[in-house]
Amino acid sequence: MSKKGLDKKAVIERAALLANEKGLDNVTLKELADSLEIRSPSLYNHISGLEELRREIMLYGWKQAEESILRAAENRSGYEAVRAMCRAFYRYASENKGIFSAMLWYNKYADDGSMEATSGLFSRLYGIMENMGISRDKTEHLIRTLRGFLEGFALLVNNGAFGHPADIDESFEVSLDVLMEGIKAAAGKEGSQI
Predict the structure, then answer these.
(1) How does pLDDT run across 83-92, given as a tens digit for each residue?
(2) How far apart are CA 126 and CA 115, in angstroms?
(3) How far is CA 5 from the centre of its chain?
(4) DSSP H or E run through 121
(5) Which DSSP category does 159 fall into?
(6) Which spans in 1-135 are helix H?
(7) Which of 100, 110, 94 is nearest to 60 (CA)?
(8) How far apart are CA 105 and CA 114, in angstroms?
(9) Do 84 and 68 meet the contact criterion of CB atoms below 8 Å apart?
């Protein structure tokens, strides 16, 4: 039984919704088919299996996150833009826990599709850093630092791993302050070498 009007986009969107509701590891093809009111074999008209589904959820998440992050950086520059982008990423990751779990596997699926899903985001970050006088080589390290912090912090929050009663959002802002000071230090060192 094939549902009329069902396309790959609708399948991925439903899978992403299920991932957020139940967790990425709990999304099965049978459950996805049931939620779409189709038989499991009909899914193969749109995806090749569970591995492709997870890759597509990852791409879906990065595309959505990229839109949100770029919107947050509009009409901003320098550290203000980087802060806004970090906050937007954290907000997206903490509001979309299942999708975020798939996004962590970005490099597992490294291909043209994953590069395309984040090209605007990385282009904007490289541009911001260049305007702050930071070299491309140093920017690559700083992007890894930002990604490590953002993904790690969101992962801990999403799994309830912060047990101390201190406000988590305040901890995020303090951590962001520390990162911005580190970026300023990196920019200063490069400026003194020029």
Answers:
(1) 999 999 999 9
(2) 15
(3) 29
(4) helix 112-131
(5) T
(6) 8-22, 29-36, 40-43, 50-73, 78-95, 97-103, 112-131
(7) 100
(8) 10
(9) no
**CB distance 32 to 18 below 8 Å:** yes
Sole residue written with tokens 């699926």? 109
List, for residues 91-130, the tens digit of each pLDDT value: 999 999 999 999 988 666 667 777 788 889 999 999 999 9
Tokens at 75, concatenated: 């009409």
Query: Residues 81-85: contacts with CB within 8 Å, 24+ apart?
Result: 81/124, 81/128, 82/125, 82/128, 82/146, 82/180, 82/183, 83/176, 83/180, 85/121, 85/124, 85/125
Residue 155, both tokens: 């992962």
Both tokens of 31, joined, read 């459950």
Return d(Cα 44, Cα 31) in angstroms, integer.
14
Instruction: Answer for the pair 13, 60: CB distance below 8 angstroms, yes or no.
Output: yes
Q: At 15, which amino acid appears?
A: A
* Whether 97 contacts 158, CB under 8 Å: yes
Distances (CA, A) of 59 to 72, 101, 103, 119: 20, 12, 7, 12
Instruction: Give the pLDDT confidence of 2-36 residue by residue, as tens digits.
Output: 566 799 999 999 999 999 999 999 999 999 999 99
